[in-house]
Amino acid sequence: MRLDQVVFPPAPPGGVTEQHVHLGGSVPIYRLWEMGQIRGIRGLGSYEQFVRLAHRRPDTVTSLDDYLRVFDLVEAIQSGPESVRESIHVAVSGAYRTAGMRQLGPGGEGADPEPPLAVRRLELRLCPLKRTGAPFLRGEHAGLYDVDRIILACCQAAAETELIYRGEMQVGLIFCFGRDLTWEANAVLATKTRRWAAVYRNIIGVDLAGSERQRSLADADERARMRELFEEAAGTGPGSLGRTIHCGETPWVDLPTFIATIDALAPHRVAHPLTAAHAYWQDGDDRGLRLLADRGIVCELCPWSNHLTGALPIERTGALLSLLDAYHIGYTLSTDSPALQKTSLALEIALLLTRGGVQPEQIDRAFATAEASTFLPPRPARG
Ligand SMILES: [Zn+2]
User: Fold this and answer.
1) Which of 3, 153, 161, 273 lies at a CB distance of 3.0 to 4.6 Å from 92, suitable for a disulfide?
2) How remote is the CA of residue 20 from the centroid of ligand 1, in Å?
3) Consecutive sets of 10 residues in the chain, 383 residues long: mean pLDDT of each?
4) How many angstroms is it from 335 CA to the middle of ligand 1?
5) Domain spans, the chain
């Protein structure tokens, strides 16, 4: 069956909430190339070379580290207040226009005259320190651009987009600590997040992202250190920010480390917690699943991204959702990097319904859970 002929469950009124989208993966490839050309970023190559490099697809990406490889260049292109502002505008426009489409043009442009759904609440995540002009230095150098200017530009752009769409689109920012960043850089991010979240309500959460191979957090001292940074950035008690973490996407995070990391960082949501599912499938060990259930932690799943990194073939997604259902664990569906994967939320749902063994009621459940577990404030009253 062609993906544009898949029958969708009725879309929720008011649109869908998408929780897990990276700014680095949300600017279309052609647009990144233009931005890079205009700004004189080196290493872009020809357009064809750049498309081949940037497109996250199964024949060139087989692991999380492969998947992450292009982001240094993308983050260099998106560096500086002007670029980050433009990137956020393009990312939100992309979500607004194309997230509900089942067909995309070669450059990622929308080509679906009757989209079956629409994203109207978007949680967009990024690491501001990786937009300071030297992402490949992992924070060893302060960067070319001032991180306060980057954060201010991010917050203003997010606020502008809400004005542009006249309240039809809600946008929140999640700032990502880096498993690949120096501790000093992560500490700067914690301080800046706390300071700016007190000023701009667009900052809604914190995340931990990056290569699990580089910092698995198997070490208890490292977990304690990350916990301090999370607490400083997100705060505790009323008014604190939402907490999510990428954890258990690869075998570098084993089940004991997965459990200990959840314990230390106390997230509300966890992205790609495949370690918990694999431990159950391979060894019948359900400690990770029970922990998620007991704490009411919601799983952010990105099916095509998980397929590309080898975390879980798309054909196994139905089995994963059924396992989470059996343990009463909530899950949501997102695209991770829609522009670089050349997908959309609607396309991925069509894939799940045709190839993934997923039932329409599981899609409905994911939509409802995304709405209930978003870090965004309640929808503003329309008037
Ligand atoms: Zn992610």
Assistant:
1) 161
2) 6
3) 76 91 94 94 90 86 80 94 97 93 79 88 97 87 92 97 90 97 96 96 96 95 98 92 97 97 98 98 98 98 94 96 98 95 93 96 96 91 56
4) 9
5) 3-7+27-373
